[in-house]
Write a structure and sequence with these properties.
Layout: E1 4-7, H1 9-25, H2 29-46, E2 53-55, E3 58-62, E4 68-75, E5 78-86, H3 91-100
Parallel strand pairs: 1-5
Antiparallel strand pairs: 2-3, 3-4, 4-5
Amino acid sequence: MKHRLIVRSCAERDISEACHWYQQQAEGLGSDCLRCVDAAIAFIGRNPLTFPKHYHEYRRVLVRRFPYGIFYVVEGDIISVIAVLHLAQDPETIRKILNERQ
């Protein structure tokens, strides 16, 4: 089945904020972050059911080299990226964010 991938605007903001923060730390690091996030999202698009459900219907893929998780749901033929969150946060905070973005 071919899936359609949607990155919600709230997830786009998450990505932008993370990459901006890394760019402030070292020149080029923000671009590296963006490439790693893009690669993980592309993998999700090709293999959406590879990762088990992490919390309710949310699946999570880890971003290579960076401490972020990409949270997404699969509904029929649509994949929706809901959030890209730093994983050093309290798990309860992550669950709260996901619940707010339903």
